Structure formats: structure tokens, C-alpha cells
Prior knowledge:
two-stranded antiparallel ribbon; single chain; mainly beta; 1 helix; 7% helix; 6 strands
Amino acid sequence: MLLLPCNYLHTDTGYTGDSIHPECIDDLKKQKEYLGALDWKVYYTQESFVPDGFGDETIARNSYMFNEQVDTNNPNWVRTRLNINEVADESQTLQLGFSEEIEFHKFSVDPARASSWNKFPTR
């Protein structure tokens, strides 16, 4: 997760489809005043494998709230990761050769970290 100024163009990787909205105020001080204190809240569901379950009981689902307050005067960033996992459950006793494949997701959110990015873009 990365919150960037409205006048930042994502051209580092060769992408040319980015544009600056006409209502963007490209003054850093005014942008900080507009944002005020930042309080990031992310609600997400974590799925995990349950080894002694079968079928739908193989995956446990729990919801979490990520809440982080950051300083608008110092750049911050939050690393997030989404992993897609697959479980193949094979059972010989119920039906010969029966196999069930279940996909589950693991979402990770790290705490906010200080960023070294301190060059504010100008038009």
C-alpha cells in the first residue's frame, strides 16, 4: 500500500497511461494540510489450512483489522502480500481416486515503515 501525491506520474517502468487530474494541487504543504493526520484502516480476511478437516472444513477463515497511524511529514509505506495457495485433498477410502482441490488466500500486512522517498514531484 502506497499513498502518493496526486501529481506523481508512474513512468519509472515505462507506463505511459498515467495522468495528473486537473484538480490536483501540486503544493506539498497544501496536500499535507488537506490530508491531516493519516489513520490507515484495512479490513481483510485471512484463510488458513486446517490439516484435520475435509471439504469446506479444510480452510479456516478469520477477519482482521489493520490500523496504523502515520506522520504526514515523513514518507511511509506499508508492504502487503497476497498469496494464493492450493490444497489437493486425496482420499482413497471414500471413493477410489477421489480428489478435491481447494484454493485459499493468505494476505499479509506489515507495519508502516519509514520511506527514503523524499523527492516531491513538481509539474
